[in-house]
Specification:
The chain has one domain. It has helices spanning 5-10, 22-35. The protein is an all-alpha fold. The chain is built from 2 helices and no strands.
């Protein structure tokens, strides 16, 4: 899960600190795009 405004509206009682920030996901996506990845790759972004 990623901390977004849409998620906050969907889960109003959730502690935002318990969900990874969008920056963590964006950094990982950028790394995959720049370094390449195998087709069909599934990865979980820690956080």
């Amino acid at each position: 899960a990623t901390r977004t405004k849409m998620r906050a509206r969907a889960y109003p009682g959730e502690d935002p600190a318990s969900v990874k920030p969008p920056e963590a996901v964006a950094d990982h996506i950028t790394s995959l795009v720049l370094n390449g990845f195998e087709t069909g790759l599934w990865e979980r972004v820690p956080g």
